[in-house]
Amino acid sequence: MIPGSSSAVCTLFEGHYHFGVAVLTNSLYTQGFRGDIFAGYRGTLPAWTIDAYDNSSLPGPAGKTLDVAAGLRLHFIPLQTNYHLTNYKPDFMLQVWDGPAKDASSIFYFDPDIVLTAPWKLFTEWVEYGVALCEDVNSPLTQHHPRREAWRRYYRTRDIALSFKVATYANGGYIGVTRSNEKFLHLWRLMQEHMGPAIGGLHRCALAGNGLDADAASPFAPFGKTDQDALNAAIEAWGGELSIVGKEAMAISPGTSLLPHAIGHPKPWRWSPLGQAFDGRPPRKVDVEYWNNARGIVTAHSPTLIRQKLLTMKIASLIGRFYRRR
Fold first, then answer.
1. Are residues 196 and 245 in the same domain?
2. What is the C-alpha separation between 46 and 25, in angstroms, rounded?
């Protein structure tokens, strides 16, 4: 790790999600993060990583490191798993923490469609209050919601006791953990390993083309949101502290955003501002922040495209004042 850094950051990507990794990196740097970012990936690396060099200290073969800026390095770790990447988050975080980030006192995971808009020092403070999480758009799930009861019934047969903690349902796109709470990641991983048979294997995901069958994806099925349901079941099994911030953190609802999250589709790098505006969908905060942060220390888009997007975003926002879906 970079000397003096106490936190490590992780993300996972494949295909066109590399654009999100570049902009996430820019936003981390802008907000004051200095240290190591570990990006697990499948497929080939994009053109903007051309200056990355081989790094044998990374786990597995063919790991590469990109010196992004003074005090910031981006490490690319090719993954040897058939898991859908959304089901691989705790596994990857533990792999990094047990290996190249073994000296880190805390570790954070961000989905690659997240952009940070708050100073990094707030995240390092937040994680000291407990396992750091954000509320999801599907929250809340009340104490006896059928899906919560389905988790309890399922894990009871595997000798894991769940008990209600909070009605808040957490989003799986972000988590921060200190060394003192490392066991939470082991618990989340265990919950997902037990989840596997119920969804037909951890290569399946509600977001994937080879998704869940109708029964597994039904509203009251225990794991219709796969990793996210396993995460929230882990919260019920966890005996330690939690620090969950509301929907405003991910710009899902009004309020002070910390890490706007592009939930759903299209992603900001595939968003057509004018086309969406004429369809009654003005730019989201995360779309605006994505293109604002596309200009930075990592350049995955051409300067011309960035200027065009920022201009059309302003026009689309103006259209959105007068025309939007109810």
1. yes
2. 15
- 172/220 same-domain check: yes
Most distant pair of Cα atoms in the chain: their distance: 57
Give the contacts of 85 (CB within 8 A, at least 6 positions apart): 12, 13, 14, 40, 42, 79
The reply to whether the predicted model has a pTM over 0.90 is yes
Looking at residue 296, what is its pLDDT? Answer: 94
Domain range enclosing 310: 268-321
Alpha helix ranges (H) inside 79-167: 89-98, 120-126, 146-156
How many separate domains does the chain show?
2
Q: Which helix (H) or strand (E) holds 109?
A: strand 106-110
pLDDT beneath 70: ranges in the chain: 208-210, 273-280, 319-326
Residues 45/64, Cβ–Cβ less than 8 Å = yes
Q: Tell me, yes or no, whether 240 and 143 share the same domain.
A: yes
Residue 121 lies in a domain: yes
In a shared domain, residues 40 and 177? yes
DSSP calls for 22-78: HHHHHHHHHTT--EEEEEEEES---GGGTT-EE-TTSSSTT-EEEEEETTEEEEEEE
pLDDT at 318: 75
- The residues pairing with 36 across neighbouring beta strands, listed in sequence order, are 8, 73
Q: Parallel, antiparallel, or unpaired for β 242-245 and 131-134? A: parallel
40 and 178 belong to one structural domain: yes
Contact 144, 162 (CB under 8 A): no
Same domain, 230 and 285: no
39 phi, psi to nearest 5 deg: -115, 110
Residues paired with 194 in a beta bridge? none
Q: Does residue 163 sit in the same domain as residue 60?
A: yes
Closest-CA residue to 9 (of 119, 130, 108): 108
Do 217 and 297 have their domain in common? no
pLDDT for 322 equals 66
Q: Starting at the earlier edge strand, list the strands of the sheet with 7-14.
A: 53-54, 64-69, 72-78, 35-42, 7-14, 106-110, 174-178, 131-134, 242-245
